Amino acid sequence: MPYPKKLLNDYESVALDLHPHWWFFSGPATALVASIVFGIVSMVSFDGDTQTTMRWAALVLIVLCALWLIVRYLKWTSTNFVITSDRVIFRQGVLSKHGIEIPLEDRLLGELGRRHPAYGFEAHKGYGTPEHWEALRRYGPCPEHRMTFRGVTPEAGSAPFGDRQAHRRGQSG
Question: Do residues 93 and 129 share a domain?
């Protein structure tokens, strides 16, 4: 089952959607085949009461192994390893979904912080801090800044934080 589109953010796209490896089924599938072979052998090799007991044992084993395989299949279909344009997601669960999401923005901003230390990218995680806006005013935008974002360039409008004290005093432009 693919990762549901309704769980994606606006403008987020799925780059990779995976399920666990097929080896996830190897244990239950091997056990099911072995219990079927045991059932066939018990029908051919034994007579009388022993054959009846072995048949019942084989039948119970086959049912248990089939149930194990079905449970594994349900877990397999409901487990997603997803890489999107915004995050890495691991989700699992048949009745209730749980998992973890790791935003890719954190790693990107950490890298930008190392390349452009004056802006403090690693501290604001996508939302500009007053220190970041001050660095933007002082040094101008770096190549990674979104030029259409309000406050990055004079053409894009004033900074979202602006000078709040001046605005309260009625001195903002």
Answer: no
Say if residue 21 is in the same domain as residue 96: yes
- Looking at the fold, whether 122 and 95 belong to one and the same domain comes out as no
Count of domains for the chain: 2
Range of the domain at 62: 5-102
Note the pLDDT tens digit of each residue in 3-19: 778 888 777 888 888 88
Q: Is 103 helix (H, G, I), strand (E, B) or coil?
A: strand
CA distance 90 to 170: 50
Query: Model confidence at 168, in pLDDT bands (50, 70, 90)?
Result: very low
Give yes or no for residue 92 having a pLDDT over 70. yes
pTM of the model: 0.55
Q: What are phi and psi of 106, to 5 degrees?
A: -60, -45
Placement of tokens 């089939």 in the chain: 66
